[in-house]
Queue: 2 jobs
Job 1
Amino acid sequence: MTKKVLIFLLTISLFNTALFAQSFNLAGFHNYQNHFIIFDDGNFHDVENLPVQSFQVGGNCLAYVDNANKFKVYYNGEVQILTDILVDEYYVSRNLLVYKVFGQLYVFDNGKKQMLTSNVYRFVTGDSIVAYINANTNSAHAYYKGKIYNVENALTGHPIQDFEAGDNIFGYFNNNTKFFKVFYNGKLEDIAQTNDLITFKAGLNTIAYVDQSTNTFHTFYKGDVIDLDDFMPKSYKVGDNLIAYISSLEEFKVFTNGDIETISDFEPNAYYVTDSLIAYNEQGYFKVYYNGKIYELESYMPQDFQIQQSTIVYTDLNGWLKAFSSGRQFFVTKDIVKMFKLTYNTILINTTVNTVKIYFDGKLYDTN
């Protein structure tokens, strides 16, 4: 995100409650007066008279750096100052706000701020997990559901490689012990031991990995190791409880709910996996795989589309905004859309130079 936030951009958090399972209802934007406005459950709150430098919207909070470099969070209807010092970096997910300032790593969870370490070497975050290396003790830890877990102690050098977190899971390869390990549900498990690095990607309850010593494809899924293919895939991507991949035979496959299904007998032109959706271009057709079904959305591939959770939003050939969510396709607006942003199944829309609208709970809100 740039230091100066464009006046009409950015983010949000719920769509149509009749369509969406989860209720993310926050949004942030600048109005025509350059005030920073927070949209919360259908109500607008003018929280800053000057434009903020950056902001991010999560599932239950909105974090931002104000015009005076103060780092603030909007949570449960109130704005709190977390620090007067300019933060080095920050990330907001469905459940957590994680930020770093002068090497100190903090988490904001359920309205409470907690320091994880005073000297962080490296960290990764997910929706409900933070994995990090404490440079003071040269040890690795995980923050999960309000508790800090010791993962690796007294590391010699920095042997942990390919450190990656999914929504509620993280994995890594320890180059000293040669073990590929997964932390899940508060437990650390040794998955495989090999002299070759294991490549992997993490999602929700899922880590897909390739054992390069055998060129085989596997997944750690909800506590079990499952063999997916005897040969290395051409490519693979991970989402919420699912893995999409192109097999060595160029078949387009998906692993979901513990089963493997073939979507197509040939490789798509391109495919994208985010949360619970797989969007792909098959011979110029725009298609979506969701909840075990294939939906053909358009006979062309949109130039501009965004995916999150169970929703995909795109502009059609007329410049109108359309959406697919939870198995249903519909028009969001037939105004000519200049810009849009999807966040947690909510859409912020810029139709003209001075017009910003938010689609939430089946309504189109005019922000002016």
Job 2
Amino acid sequence: MKFDRIDWGRVFFKTYYEKRSFGHLLVNFNRIWVIHVTFYWFYTSYNAPKIYAINGSSSPAMTWSATALGGAVATMIMILATLAEFAYIPTTWNNTSHLTRRLIFLLITLALTCGPTFYIAIAERNGGGGSLSLILGIVQFFISIAATLLFAIMPSGRMFGDRVASKSRKYLASQTFTASYPKLEKKNRLASVALWVLVFGCKFTESYFYLTKNFRDPIQVMVGMKIQNCTDRYFGNSLCTNQAAFTLAIMFVMDLVLFFLDTFLWYIIWNTVFSIGRSFFLGLSIWTPWKNIFTRLPKRIYAKLLATTEMERTYKPKVRLSPLTILWRK
């Protein structure tokens, strides 16, 4: 009776605008990009020392530092996702302050994961940086690993605490209606974690040995290669001379695409294994035809949900469920 007195504008706060654009590829899938692009950088840069070789040779410090730039790549993806997110939220203090804190943190992380590379490259070019360059490269690498794992595991919206999940009554309505998410039980959560650990564990192991490590020798040969004594009627020798560079770039892109597809492959494999295990755990036969499962579903709904002792009249399941069966078959 008092709903007309509610100030609905203060009860709920709008978190996102209803927009549809390609910016959602960054905002909603930033962790997917971080996991794949960053680890592909780690693997490829470690196996391509000739690309960042100084004076014809690559030092251990430069190898550590060049590999650690994967953390800078992950940070750049997160920065672009944060900047894109500004376009999808109302410009209120609660929203913009949250994103501004995240952006400042990401800029500091970018400096830590990218800055040492400039010093190490200059020091190595001038005759070697000694143990200081090596220590900086190792520290930069482990900071990059920590940052990448943080960005890959933690949702960006919870990086500095989830405002909606706080105990403040200010967000009580949103907790109940717009941000009410079910929590998995301990066993189900453990199974989910085990599934993704196995998927990415197998994926990263297989991708390193069968994708990236096998790519090492072509990189060694094709980096800096120039095709001689070639010409073209319209472009002269500008294109054909750099044919090896163009081919190598296409190979990098193709290897990255296969790096993405490996995740899908291992997800299908382990999802099948977990599904069979789940079926046996629930006492179901994995050989039950799908047709039987779907045709029995209306009777199961009747037995589990509709059949009660308080019904005024008793009908057979087929009679009571005939409208539901027709709708289901449609």
